[in-house]
Design a protein that fits this description.
- The protein is mainly alpha-helical and about 150 residues long.
- It contains four helices and no strands.
- It is elongated, with a radius of gyration of 16 Å.
- It starts with a helix and ends in a 20-residue tail after the last helix.
- This is DUF2202 domain-containing protein.
- InterPro entries: DUF2202, Ferritin-like, Ferritin-like_SF.
Amino acid sequence: MNDTVASILNEAIQDEYKARALYRKVIEKFGDVRPFSNIVEAEERHIQALLPLFEKYHVPIPADDWPTRIEPPASLLAACQQGVEAEIENMEMYERLLDQARQFPDVQAVLQELQRASRDNHLPAFQRCVERGGLPGRGGRNRPGRRWESG
């Protein structure tokens, strides 16, 4: 097991666990509202994308205790604002981890894709939610004129 890779993977998966827990708490409190209902599924895919790297580099997969550490925000607007902050922090974390992973192109490839999803999909969705004052979204996927993108 490489300590650098272990540190990178653990930080990445903990951040994804945290985001998933927050978005699940929002859904529990406010119902199946967008963008949370879409992005919580994406966070699960992000976790799944990291797991093969844990196996390849023989890094133990950490337990997810975030559901017991997260409280839902008071309002949907506050949740959207928290989503913006979380995705910005996520992108910054991935920028730092990408630098640390220079010797591991496979790790970099996964981290780059996760960072791209945060930057191009999640952050704009939460920013739109804030612009709407926290009102749930109408849904942007598969609308005419828009290309479907997984997040």
